[in-house]
Write a structure and sequence with these properties.
This protein is α/β, with parallel strands linked by helices. The protein has two domains: 174 residues, Rossmann fold; 117 residues, CBS-domain. 45% of the residues lie in helices and 17% in strands. The strands form three sheets. It has a five-stranded parallel β-sheet, sandwiched between helices. Strands 6-7-8-9 form a four-stranded mixed β-sheet. The chain has a three-stranded mixed β-sheet with strand order 10-11-12. Helix 1 packs across helix 7, helix 2 crosses helix 7 and helix 3 packs parallel to helix 7. The chain is elongated, with a radius of gyration of 29 Å. 34% of the residues are buried.
């Protein structure tokens, strides 16, 4: 049975766009490194600009750069000609995008860059175009046609431009040693912000911790557990090291007429599972789920600094 024509069309488009990416990969050269040097060493921001579909892609590139440690924003060429050129500074670097390199709307930005010595990275398939000639560095887009059968709608070219923005952002991220913590600081809201929270962001600490020493009897330990309402009590030795934990489940298992005459060391679970305060809260959830427990003490140098409960993670949107 012949394949559906719509599926065939989709596959042709995918193949053409993959081909464009392979062409771009093959023509990466020292200009890519020069562009990275400019972007990494700037004392200002990366100003991304472009018209039409290139502008839409440029907004995405600016957002990706900003979220991965390279301050950046998008300036619309039309608005630039009506006052927004004032957003540009000679400490900045401009990343200008035009597939054909002849977008008239970019002319004012190009002249402004030349007048004030602002480094210009040109992104175009045509190095000999107006944009290509104006650029201090030219990053070439593939020139093997669009996936659109009419050869008109920006398709392969916009895909290649998005990928070019991604490889710039990732290379800069790696150069700078950008970390999960850095990423978290730029994504405090939404699911990403929740996932990237650390144990120390959610844990109960100080007087909120259910802690008692090894000489405590069960009755007093139960009072501590009840008052802190976290379903457990941590046991520390004279040095303040965490040596054990007693949970609600432990008390039920050891329930007997003489239980309240026992010391915590008779009942506690020794060497309890713990986690580092700077671990991701998502790691704490994974550990608690894997061990079928609902709380973890956050420990550094064997000293309990806090305690995190599975319900804390759930309330923070981490599951």
């Amino acid at each position: 049975m012949p394949e559906n024509k719509d599926i065939l069309s989709a596959k042709r488009t995918i193949d053409r766009e993959i081909e464009a990416l392979k062409v771009m990969e093959a023509q990466l050269d020292e200009n890519f490194v020069k562009a990275l040097d400019l972007m990494q060493n700037t004392k200002g921001k990366i100003i991304v600009t472009g018209m039409g579909k290139s502008g839409h892609v440029g907004k995405k590139i600016a957002a990706t750069l900003a979220s991965t440690g390279t301050p950046s924003f998008f300036v619309h060429p039309g608005e630039a000609s009506h006052g927004d050129l004032g957003m540009l500074d000679n400490k900045d670097v401009v990343l200008a995008i035009s597939n054909g390199g002849e977008s008239k709307e970019l002319s004012d930005i190009l002249m402004y860059c030349k007048r004030y010595g602002i480094p210009l990275i040109a992104v175009t398939k045509a190095p000999d175009s107006s944009l290509g000639k104006a650029g201090d560095v030219v990053l070439r887009l593939p020139n093997n046609g669009e996936a659109c059968p009419l050869g008109l709608a920006p398709t392969s070219s916009t895909t290649a431009t998005i990928v070019l923005g991604d490889i710039l952002a990732i290379a800069l991220l790696e150069r700078k040693g950008f970390s999960k913590l850095d990423y978290n600081q730029r994504h405090p809201g939404g699911k990403l912000g929740a996932i990237l929270q650390k144990v120390s962001d959610l844990m109960h600490k100080g007087n909120e911790m259910p802690i008692t020493d090894e000489d405590t009897n069960i009755q007093d330990a139960l009072m501590v557990m009840t008052s802190k309402m976290l379903g457990c009590v941590g046991i520390v030795n004279k040095k303040g090291d965490l040596t054990g934990i007693i949970t609600d489940g432990d008390l039920r298992r050891f329930l007997s007429p003489d239980m309240f005459n026992k010391k915590v060391t008779d009942v506690m679970t020794r060497n309890p599972k713990v986690i580092a305060p700077d671990a991701l809260a998502a790691e704490a959830v994974a550990l608690m789920n894997g061990k079928k427990i609902t709380q973890l003490f956050a420990v550094k140098d064997e000293k309990p600094l806090g305690i995190i409960h599975l319900h804390d993670c759930l309330r923070a949107g981490i599951a």
